Amino acid sequence: MNSSLSQENYPGLLQGIGQLLHTARQQAAQAVNTLLVQTYWHIGQYIVEYEQGGNEKAEYGSGLLDRLSKDLSALHGKGFSRSNIYYMRKLYLNFQNSETLSHKLTWSHYFEILKADEPLEVSFYTRQTALENWSVRELKRQMKSMLFHRLALSKNKDEVLRLANQGNELQKPEDLLKEPFVLEFLNIPQNHTLTETQLEQKIIDHLQYFILELGKGFAFIARQYRMSIGGKHFYADLLFYHRILKCFVVIDLKRGAISHQDIGQMNLYLNYFAKEENVEGDNQPVGIVLGAYKDHFLVEYATASITNKILLAKYLLYLPDKDLLSQQLDRLLQQEEIQQQLTVGDADE
Question: Which member of 121, 304, 310, 331 has the lowest number of beta carbons within 10 Å of its beta carbon?
Answer without folding.
Answer: 304
